[in-house]
Amino acid sequence: MKTNWRLFHQTAPDAKHKQFLFGLNEDVTQHEDIDIALDTEPKLKQTYETYLALHDALIVKKHPAELANLLATYEPNGTAMDMTIATLKRYKVAVLAAVVTSPYSNGPIEGINRLIKSLKRSCFGFKN
């Protein structure tokens, strides 16, 4: 499953088209691939479901009550998601304000900064 880690970042995996999975030596859909991985690890399943719920509450629906409920009802399970939830709880007021009031993102500015830094690295040593 290490080669298919990108599947876990998708909110709606493909359930129609089959592709060959080298670990199992069979054709499966992306949805079946995720189900196979989640059935083997219960902690991964709980973390993945929490990730999807956070994604829906923050980005898709932008519903602050759902996010507050998710933070209140989360039970730690010894994974890295515990630290993420603790950070969201610590900055709960600011996160909820950003979800509700601000339609803006600093993503484009960060992209430009990354482009400038990569150009500086690739042009290092040129005189002009």
Task: Explain briefly what this protein structure is.
This protein has 128 residues and is mainly alpha-helical. Helices cover 59% and strands 6% of the residues.
Features:
128 residues, two-stranded antiparallel ribbon, 6% strand, 6 helices, mainly alpha, 59% helix
Summarize the helices and strands and which ones pair or pack:
Blueprint lengths: L17 E4 L4 E4 H11 L1 H19 L3 H10 L7 H10 L1 H10 L5 H16 L6
Antiparallel strand pairs: 1-2
Structural class: mainly alpha
Main beta sheet, described? 2 strands, antiparallel
- Mind telling me the C-alpha Rg? 19 Å
What's the helix count? 6
Distance between the termini: 47 Å
Topology as a string of helices (H) and strands (E): EEHHHHHH
**Residue share in helix:** 55-70%
- Rounded mean pLDDT score: 84
Total E-strand runs: 2
From the spread of the alpha carbons, the general shape counts as extended
Unreliably modeled segments: none
Strand order of the largest sheet: 1-2
